[in-house]
Amino acid sequence: MSLKSAAVLTVSDLYLQGKQEQSFNLILEDLNGLDYEVEKYVCVCENKENLAQEIQLLSQTTDIIIVIGLLETGCIYKGVALALSQELGENDKLINIIDRLKGSHKKEEVSLPLFARLLTSENASFPVIEVSRIYVLNVNCFEELYFNILKSYLVQYKRKPTFTKAIYIQLNGNTKQNVLKHKGCSTEITFSEDNSRLVCTATSNNFSDIVEFEQKLRNSPNIPYLGSCDSSCENPLDYLNTKENVQQTLQYIEESLTTYGTENIFLSFNGGKDCTVLLHLFVNLLKLKFPHYDQKIFCLYVRSENAFPEQDVFIRECGVFYNLEVLTIVGSIKDALHQVLEDRPNFKACLMGTRRTDPYSSNLSVFQMTDVNWPQIMRVSPILDWHYSEIWDYLLYYKVPYCKLYDLGYTSLGNSLNTIKNPCLKYTQCSTSKENYLPAYRMLNEVKERSGRNIQHIQK
């Protein structure tokens, strides 16, 4: 999906005078030019409680929050940390930058929310501080930071997703006409020929529509379907320099492929946000490192008896789009793993979307064998140290399709009998006084990610 709305906060209007005021107006104009709905311009006093409160209010209606102010006092960092319920910690990279610029630093000007990261550019003397799509700009150079660093991120977040599949069909006289009968209104199609094959390139901004189109071609008795590949241009490997956590994860995945071989690895996939990120990274790394690999990726889906229907639908869609071989087993993870290894004894490693905040995962290693009383296989957790906000940054930035439940207020998926929408995302609509839920990516307090999980029983 593409982000739509932005808000700008200035901390104390004393600093926006003369040229700074002109720069500020220029930024507002540019946001509108990027087709963002600028929900609000707010000027708050230099007080961490007031700033935190304003950020929390804006998060209910706004996708992107830009904070402009003086950073030397540390008040802005404290306010952002308070809004996110995060601790502050001295950032080594920021220390190096400020020491290089000024010769020394004060503790408060280098103490950032723990999950913050620095966005830098060769064309900017100072970084943009980012956490959970809240961007902090130094008032002394905010125009430079906006146009040389932040704008490229805003352009990418705003861009509509584009999904493209190259579908291969045996060429005969009526193939094109038969294909066009299944074309939906949101799907564009072009044809080319390749060694007696017809290549149907289908493009759509809607993930479900392009999956449905391919599924119809697969099932049609009049179309000799041969196969397909994802030819979407969105690829995280193009952005290694800006995404350190992505780069580290790709190194772990590549190490797995090198150590165990492509044919001896499978993924644990239940349609949740974490394993969706992992699947997308794995697929794209295979494209780069093994461009001629044409086998289906094997995925194990350990399904609950009371799984959400939306979860099942999304997994089926991923199976079609990414060319997966999905084995669905209803039962325990241990029994499912035993069955898989019995049928496929060549498997040596299982890639998992486990993160350190998951239950019983705080002491895991990225590479760790299963316990002695379990079927023996190497568990590989490449996104083990990702934060909740990094998961959503990835999904939104790279336009990765995800389960629709997350847009309804669910933040962590169990099953339909033990999972409810996250209470932390509940809000009341001013116009109707009705209760509603924010999408999962809007949640600021990462500690509350699993609120709504493990409910004793939900009346159906």
From TrEMBL:
InterPro entries: MoaB/Mog-like_dom_sf, PAPS_reduct_dom, Rossmann-like_a/b/a_fold. Keywords: ATP-binding, FAD, Flavoprotein, FMN, Nucleotide-binding, Nucleotidyltransferase, Transferase. It catalyses: FMN + ATP + H(+) = FAD + diphosphate. It comes from the Eukaryota. Pathway: Cofactor biosynthesis; FAD biosynthesis; FAD from FMN: step 1/1. Residues 264-327, 336-419 form the Phosphoadenosine phosphosulphate reductase domain. GO terms for molecular function: ATP binding; FMN adenylyltransferase activity. Transmembrane segments: none annotated. One of its GO terms (biological process) is FAD biosynthetic process. Its EC number is 2.7.7.2. The keyword Transmembrane does not apply. The keyword Phosphoprotein does not apply. This is FAD synthase.
